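User: My instructor asked us to take a sequence, write out its structure as tokens, and then describe one feature of it. I'm not sure where to start. Here is the sequence I was given:
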Amino acid sequence: MVYKNEINREITEAANTLGREFVVQVTGKVEERSSKNSNLPTGDIEVIADTFSILNRSEVPPFTIEDNTDGGDDLRMKYRYLDLRRPCVRRNLELRHKMAFEIRRYLDAEGFLEIETPILVKSTPEGARDFVVPSRMNPGEFYALPQSPQLFKQLLMVSGYDRYFQIAKCFRDEDLRADRQPEFTQIDCEMSFVEQEDVIRTFEGLVKHIFKYVKGIDFTEAFPRITWADAMQRYGSDKPDIRFGMEFVELNDVAKGKGFSVIDDAELTVGILAKGCANYSRKQIDELTEFVKRPQIGAKGLIYVKFEADGSIKSSVGKFYTEEELRAWGEKAGAEVGDLLLVMTGETMKTRKQLCELRLELGNRLGLRDKNVFAPLWVVDFPLFEWDEETQRFYAMHHPFTSPNPEDIPMLKTDTGKVRATAYDIVVNGTELGGGSIRIHDAALQDQMFELLGFTPERAQEQFGFLMNAFKYGAPPHGGLALGFDRFVSILAGLDTIRDVIAFPKNNSGRDVMNESPSAIDQSQLDELQLELKPSDN
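Assistant: Let's start with the prediction itself. The structure tokens for your sequence are:
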């Protein structure tokens, strides 16, 4: 504001009392600034004030309300209503708003109908844990909050609504990480009379459209596809980051049988090649070794082979293998002078997952995971079942309504673990953006699926009877997909956590430290619900 005469002296004096975040009202004339400031959004104008008043005073905020704030995560979450004033947070929520509108426009043009499904539903404890809600009107009985609208969208297909979508709130009572919250939002979709190709084509089109709309990136080619088995063998993950190479190289044929028990006794010896990293110091390699030995990764150690600039080879297993034998490792991996081969050994799936973590860490350290580069792909041919050693039974890898690959149906009882699902995930930069499947629409096949998953006919009827009954009335072939909306926004915003694109998120303990929830409730409420709390074992 500018004050140009004596009449404005009072205004000047009042303005000098302003503190940070005061709410003020100014009236006056907007004029072009004589000395413009291109660093300010309003740098081309100034207001010649006629009146000025303070509408509301503010205490000094507990952190600076700027993009580069001095507030830590916990403090900002406690005062989230102040954190939301920061321009960077506002930009995230504006992006979320624009994406939601554009997604609705796109799907509407494709003939989809947006239909809301219930939030209070029946608990079906298969998969993640449900949040449960006691019913006052039905004492001793409970609703669950939906983990997804899965059953209802299938019912909509039975009802003849052949293209459904919903930007749906979902709830899962599970441990949290960067891309999970207790309540999250997904773009939930279902289509009738479709096969896998139809679903993939439709939603690849949506994802391409949003990339073009938000980032100006035009993906003209079809997204690459990889089978689940190949993804695990080449990257150790069913959501591989393909922005960089460093694919796995299996070394069993050149490493086993040399008298080194760590490798000879292992199911798998596998490595990754870090190009140009033979100059890594012992300290740097020790850091990588400690990284893979962290409890959350659980490796016992790390083997390295350096292909030095002078043509020599140095290795942590040099006393067990000759230089010629180690050179064979390098030839298998495609190593050249100046490269570093990092090797892990152990149980097949466990070792692949451990090496995946190392690959991603190296990608970060080498600057290969650029947030401004996007590499989408589809992962297909997932296993239909996964075996649990503790309970000694099969579980559905996705959910009990996923259709087996038609070619594999004869193996359902004879070779259950090898049956592939007609399921597909879309992955961007190592993050699962979404996934779906073709559903079982045949009642007899659904009964067989329940039997393989250990459901008695009575239990299946109790939990899913309404869906099974609906299938008796002409259920069409159908399938769908759900995209993680929070994840989609965070990827396009270049963020590491979905929490930054949610207005009022929970912390890593599932708590809202701003409104102090979850919290205890009054005894009168417990009495009304006919609930009694057991003393904590702690």
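For the description part of your assignment, you could build on this observation: Residues 304 and 397 are 35 Å apart (CA to CA). Try explaining in your own words what that tells you about the chain.
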